[in-house]
Amino acid sequence: MFARSALRSSLASSSRLFSTSTPRQTKVAVLGAGGGIGQPLSLLLKTDPLVSSLSLYDIRGAPGVAADVSHVDTPSEVKGYAADQLDQALDGVQVVVIPAGVPRKPGMTRDDLFNTNASIVRDLASAVGRVAPTAHILVISNPVNSTVPIVASTLSKLGAFDPNRVFGVTTLDVVRASRFLSLVTGSTPAECDVPVIGGHSGATIVPLLSQTNLGKSLVGSGETYGQLVHRIQFGGDEVVKAKDGAGSATLSMAYAGAKFANALLRGLNGEKDVVTPTFVKSPLYESQGVDFFSSLVELGPKGVEKIHPVGPLAPEEEKLLEACLPELKKNIEKGKAFVA
Ligand code: NAD
Ligand code: LMR
Q1: ipTM over 0.95
Q2: What is the per-residue DSSP string for 93-133?
Q3: Which of 137, 254, 276, 303 could crosslink 41 through cysteines, CB 3.0-4.6 Å?
Q4: Judging by beta carbons within 10 Å of its beta carbon (0-12, 13-18, 19+), is residue 107 exposed, middle or buried?
């Protein structure tokens, strides 16, 4: 039998999910904790040694999820909050993760979720701006290309927007790129870290395989390269189709969300060189009207420490970026217009 301490340390350190340096800990809220992503994400956050307290909120089911997750034998406290307890759920939190909102069904684009999810995200962001104005906000709800500008504009109206503290979680694209490249090259995902830039939907997802040791020889290789890029850009559709009306990626997304949250927490704790792609307010393509963009971002005690330039691109990647920018611009403008 697996000893409890061994299990705990294996959960904390054997996967690529969590690593930790210093022990300062943080109160984290999950808004949408009763959902397909929210439940496994709450579980994974309960096993993160950098989380001291978890506040689980949903319009339905969060107290039950909290009671369940609270039995896991890690030191963090867990509390669940009902629909009318949003302010209490946000009290004193330093990090807020938002997976609230409806997922896609086959045949839908992420933008088709806008009508439902835009107001959910706006209202949650507004509560964060009021109750926990210095919190870091991690946006998972789709369409991320629009919901992040919605959060930023909502906070701006309240005078509470700090561009260093609002993040669109694009980690699932990075996780997929790593896994899919490993399958093509017969290597391990750990050897296949792929920077993925742009946004989080179809053509706005731009993997930079030329910047990886194992992927660079594939760039321009014709069918293999084209299929790999397509799989990274449309991996979400694979899951939506396979779930056949029951939703979109939840488990891999929970993994990706917990992984990004851990990276942020390590940065907040002063760990150096925590660098990962995330969709933030960015100067990189502002001159082309794209003022939110995902690129490699260094995370530090204040959140965003440094936005890295995209680096050298292969001609094929220049083309992907050309296709990305106009679509991303439209998505961002739609989000801003909703709040204005
Ligand atoms: P789900 O329907 O299983 O869960 C959503 C949860 O949100 C439900 O429990 C619902 O009660 C809750 N909710 C609705 N309105 C709320 C509100 N106002 N306040 C608090 N909670 C509220 O959906 P899911 O599969 O967990 O997906 C959630 C969202 O995440 C979707 O928009 C989906 O498209 C998106 N998503 C994003 C990524 C990404 O990479 N960023 C990946 C997968 C899914
Ligand atoms: C994903 O990439 O899996 C998510 O954005 C969910 C979706 O709608 O595909």
Answers
A1: yes
A2: -SEEEE--SPPP-TT--GGGGHHHHHHHHHHHHHHHHHH-T
A3: 254
A4: exposed
Which residues, at least 6 apart from 25, have a Cβ–Cβ distance to it below 8 Å?
49, 50, 51, 52, 53, 76
User: CA 291, 111, 168: angle at the middle one, nearest 5?
Assistant: 45
Q: pLDDT tens digits, residue range 220-239? A: 888 999 999 999 999 999 99
**Nearest Cα to 171, choosing from 236, 104, 88?**
236
- Give DSSP secondary structure letters for 58-103: -SSSHHHHHHHHTTSSSS-EEEEE-TT-HHHHHTT-SEEEE--SPP
Q: Please, are residues 118 and 338 in contact by the beta-carbon 8 Å criterion?
A: yes
Annotated binding residue at 58?
A: yes
Residue with tokens 């005078």: 159
Task: Catalytic residue, from 136, 200, 230, 308: name it.
Answer: 200
Is residue 294 within 6 Å of ligand 1 at its C-beta? no
Give every CB contact of residue 115 below 8 A, 6+ residues apart in sequence. none
Confidence band (pLDDT; 50, 70, 90) for 23? low
